Amino acid sequence: MMNKNTICLWYDGAALDAATFYAETFPDSTVGAVHRAPGDYPAGKQGDVLTVEFTVMGIPCLGLNGGPGVPHTDAFSFQVATDDQAETDRLWNAIIGNGGHASACGWCKDRWGLSWQITPRALMAAITDPDPAVAKRAFAAMMTMAKIDIAAIEAARRG
Predict the structure, then answer these.
(1) Residue 1 pLDDT exceeds 70
(2) CB 90: neighbour CB atoms within 10 A?
C-alpha cells in the first residue's frame, strides 16, 4: 500500500541500485517493493524496473526510473544528523567511496547526483550558539571544510 506522503526521486535506470545502497548505508533504511513496467515506455521496456519503494532513515521514498535528462539538484537534499565523528566519517566515506563526490560545508553528492548534508549535531549546536561570537567562529570554521571536523568546530567554538 502506498504511503500518503512519499518523496519521489527520479533516476535514469538506477533506482534499485540507489535504494539498495541507501538501505545498506543508512540506519532505518530498507528496500521494499520493486515494480516492473507493464509495457514499454520512453525510458525502458516492459519488464524493466519502473519504480522501487524504499525507506531512507525512516522517510518513505519512491525511486522512479524515468530516464535521462532530469538530474538531481542541490535544491533537494537529505540532511543527516550525526552523533560523532565516527558516524560522520562512515556516512561521508560511504557516499564518496561509492562514486560520489565532496562539496563544501558537510555537503556531498552520491553517484546518482543526489545531495546529502552530513551534519554533526555538534555543528548545529555551535552555529546556533546563543553567543553571536561563538556562533560566528564556528560558522567561519565550517566554511573552510568539506567533511565536517567536529574537533575543529569545537575548538572554534571555544575560541
Answers:
(1) no
(2) 14
